[in-house]
Automatic annotation (TrEMBL):
This is DUF3558 domain-containing protein. Residues 1-25 form the signal peptide. It comes from Arthrobacter silviterrae. Residues 43-64 are annotated as: Disordered. Keywords: Signal.
Amino acid sequence: MNKQLTITGLAVGVLLLGGCAAGTAAAPSVQFAAQSAAAHGATQGPTAVGKSASESPAGTPPQAAAMVCSAEARGNVTKILGLASPPKTDWSWNGTVYACHYALEAGTLTMSVQVFPEATAAREGAATLSTSLDAKPIQGLSNLGLPGYQAEAGTVVFAKDNMVLHVDATTMPAAAGINHVTRSAFAYQMATTILACWSEH
């Protein structure tokens, strides 16, 4: 793995994390949740977002999982790639896995969160997923003290508490946006912003 790539990703990610620390749009956007629910024919109101996985029926994911589709996450994608406006997104929740798909001109970014019964199962799940993706362990400070894995193809996996975050930018070009960010660095940067939001909230 390119050491400079990871360090650069960490630096940019840390800069973007200030939004969560300041409490700006870290929780899922109620307006966006309502729009998404309507698009999927869901009958639940937007206030249902934020229940735990054990309480949530399909269509109402845990708040932490839904952060991958939050206004702040979309804002960070916009900043990193230098987009003129936030990208359109589409999400799904099957009671265990929440997935958010970002429709970008350069390709599709997918961030998903799998909710496990407890932390040990999540760590094992992350390791199993990383093997299937040929992702290698992230070493040193770049793993943020968590089980983390990264593949040059544009995949990043982290386990935190009872959740596994998977960021997939593999359909994007080698370098994207006006800043020419590599897909691997982009995936890592987005993963760190989500992890920081989880820590803050």
